[in-house]
Amino acid sequence: MRVPKLTFAFVLAASVAAAQEPNPQAMQMQVQKIAQERPREAEAAARAFIMLIAPDRVEGNGSLDSLKARSLDQYWMEVAQLTVQFEMVQNLNRRDSVRAGLVARMFGLEVNARALQRVYRAIAQLQTSGPIVYIDGVRVDRGSADAQRGQIRTQLESLIGQHFDIEDRLRGLEVADIERRLVDVRAETQRRREKRVELVKWAVDDIIRDATRPQ
Fold first, then answer.
1. What phi, psi does 195 have (nearest 5°)?
2. How does pLDDT run across 6-35, given as a tens digit for each residue?
3. What is the pLDDT of residue 143?
4. Of 1, 64, 85, whose CA–CA distance to 36 is shortest?
5. What is the mean pLDDT of residues 54-74?
6. Long-range CB contacts for residues 119-125, cutoff 8 Å, separation at least 24
7. How far, in Å, CA of 47 to CA of 156, rounded?
8. What is the structure's pLDDT at 124?
9. Residue 162 and residue 58: Cα distance in Å, rounded?
10. What is the C-alpha separation between 73 and 85, in angstroms, rounded?
11. Are 32 and 1 in contact (CB under 8 A)?
């Protein structure tokens, strides 16, 4: 089962901005494993996460249940992605609740972007005539496919623009952290230079004491 490109389009940036070791390959393997094994606990985690980041997709045509009714493969791929993201946010929240909140908002935008991606793909596969259908909460009129694809592109541009702004805020937090650490390192370096004579003497005293200590 292939993981859509959008699934990991922003994982690296989010991980770097969240001061984590980015490992998109490991996350992709985890998503694949969940999508293939389909554990019940993953469904529960995904639904809990959806309520947090995209409450408008809990019920109705854009819900996980709606996706499940259309395609089990797509449903489990979405569940797997949400489950992995949920774990990432939970782990981050233990260290930095501000960053965790921003990353959760990013993932909420990605949920909607993936839904639009599925709609766009479905429209491309539809016949040019036929009844109106709903895909991921979007009303699809088979007779106006070109116009709807244009609308979806506009919506995606808005979502990704918002995503970029949050990512920029995360990077700003990371820059501020680096600058604070740099100030501390410079201060400690200056302190050691000023106390060089004392520090060398103390180090030599420790060596001598250790050398003369009874075995």
1. -105, 25
2. 554 444 444 444 445 557 788 888 999 999
3. 66
4. 1
5. 89
6. 119/152, 120/149, 120/152, 120/153, 123/148, 123/149, 123/152, 124/149
7. 23
8. 76
9. 22
10. 18
11. yes
pLDDT beyond 50 at 73: yes
What confidence score (pLDDT) does residue 145 get? 75
Mean pLDDT to the nearest integer, 114-130 = 77
Q: Rounded to whole angstroms, what are the CA distances from 36 to 43, 46, 73? A: 13, 15, 9
pLDDT at 146 (0 to 100): 78
Find out whether 140 and 122 touch, Cβ atoms under 8 Å: yes
Q: Please give the Cα distance from 102 to 143 (Å, whole number).
A: 39
pTM for the whole thing?
0.78
- Among residues 9, 12, 31, 29, the alpha carbon closest in space to that of 20 is found at 12
How far, rounded to the nearest angstrom, does the alpha carbon of residue 35 sit from its chain's CA centroid? 18
Q: What pLDDT sits at residue 132?
A: 61
Position 154: which residue type? T
Determine the pLDDT at residue 36. 94
Give the separation between CA 99 and CA 18, rounded to whole angstroms.
6
Long-range pairs for 196-199: beta carbons < 8 A, 24 or more residues apart = none
Q: Which stretch of DSSP H or E encloses residue 23?
A: none
Name the phi and psi angles at 33, rounded to 5: -65, -45
